[in-house]
Amino acid sequence: DAIPSADQIRITTSLKSQKGSVWTKNKSIFEYWEVEVTFRVTGRGRIGADGLAIWFTEEPGLEGPVFGAADKWNGVGIFFDSFDNDGKKNNPGVIVVGNNGKLLYDHQNDGSTQALASCLRDFRNKPYPVRVKIAYYQKTLTVLVNNGFTPDKDDYELCAKVEDMVLPSQGYFGISAATGGLADDHDVLSFLTFQLTEPGKEAPTPDTEIPQKDKEKYQEEFEHFQQELDKKKEEFQKEHPDVQGQPGKTTFAFSLSADDVFETVSDRELRQIFEGQNRIHLEIKQLNRQLDMILDEQRRYVSAVTDEIAKRGASLPGQQEQVSQQEIETVVKTQEEVIRQVNEIRNSVADTLKSISGAQHPGSAGVYETTQHFNDIKEHLHLVKRDIEHLAQRNMPSSDKVKCPELPPFPSCLSTMHFIIFVAVQTVLFFGYIMYRSQQEAAAKKFF
Q1: Global pTM?
Q2: Which residue, of 118, 123, 254, 401, is most buried by count of CB atoms within 10 Å of its CB?
């Protein structure tokens, strides 16, 4: 049922119980390889079916029940499953399933019992084409996905990774799709295959891979296909002359060109929604990276203070040692609490990033507000870091104190009681911020 055209191949149309597939004619002789696939899955309903599959198998696949291809394949299939057969709400998702030619695919459980790796990704009805990069190198299969929310072609996220995976040394690449009771259009825009070689190893030249006769044969087939396509276009123009804007219908042609030039209000609003959503997505990813850096800094400080406790254990005598050790233990516990809070912030950012990928919030007004809130949190954590440095310098002997050159002396050191009060205030602010964000999200859900 696949329908080729000049710029894409429609594997299946949005009709019930359709199947289609496209396979390479020659075997791939690459030991290590990488494929980049660009596709669209679009449908009118909120839920689609069944899905799309990318294949590397020892033999070219035939039509069958596994996303339009035959079962019991020898190789690997990367399945983009749209429909939730097992009712576990884990679809749309990406599943990697290997087979030695003897296993039957478990449709009822969406392949979860046979999956080598998987991830949840919504690939339906995206503003931009979804891009997938699949690499097999030194028995490791890696799947990277661009979710289609951004026009950036290099904005990939790791979806799945399978190690110690043995695939056939030669095989065929293919892509297939199928529909069921629900239906989507499955369109493939590009399918690029690359050979991966080890450093220092020369790759074979293209002339040794494809004989000249095969090149001429493929060129003839392409020209024949192009001629058939041109004939069909001419026949369509003769059957539908009103579409082309004949000489007696100049006004109609002008109205079409005007609609093409000027976007409607709904199109403009939709474009602004996606642009704002893309900016929010990038901002939150940047903030997530910054929080990871802050978390690493806090862990290093905990390690440094723990080492200080061990050093002071044998050096400070009597009551002074006991008091200093108690203060440092208090600092360690407080730092552990700070690390826990930063972890919670990081998880919150990750959840927000996932919700941004699945929801559409109009405009970009929330970018500045979100950035400002997280900048405030970052400043507070830097204050905690500075106060801990002051406390550590106060407890060190005068000969070991680190002096900052060219800076005026600080008026006073932070006491333990003040530090605990400061951390308590930060904790209250943090929970207040979480409650504020929850109220904002609840209001947004009610609005939509």
Answers
A1: 0.55
A2: 123
- For 56, what's the count of Cα atoms within 13 Å in the CB-facing half-sphere? 25
Asked if residue 366 lies in contact with residue 280, where contact means CB atoms within 8 angstroms, the answer is yes
Specify whether the CB–CB gap between 11 and 68 falls below 8 A.
yes
Assess if residue 429 is contained within a domain: yes
What is the number of structural domains in the chain? 2
Residue 211 CA to residue 273 CA, distance in Å, equals 51
Q: Are residues 177 and 274 in the same domain?
A: no
Q: Which of 335, 352, 339, 360 is closest to 286 using CA atoms?
A: 352
Identify residue 357 by its one-letter amino acid code: S
Close Cβ partners of 184 (under 8 Å, ≥ 6 residues apart): 12, 14, 41, 42, 43, 48, 49, 82, 124
Distance CA 389, CA 410 (A): 12
pLDDT digits (tens, 9 = 90+) for 80-126: 999 988 888 888 999 999 999 999 999 888 888 999 999 999 899 98
Quick check: helix, strand or coil at residue 116? strand
Give the mean model confidence (pLDDT) for residues 404-433. 70
Residue ranges making up the domain that contains 133: 3-200
pLDDT tens, residue by residue, 321-342: 454 566 667 766 776 776 776 6
Q: Indicate if 287 and 430 belong to the same structural domain.
A: yes
Q: Quick one: what percent of the chain has pLDDT higher than 90?
A: 28
Q: 318-358 and 365-395 are packed helices; what angle lies between their axes, rounded to 10 degrees?
A: 170
Question: Are 185 and 305 found together in one domain?
Answer: no
Q: Are residues 169 and 306 in the same domain?
A: no
End position of a domain, from candidates 200, 216, 240:
200
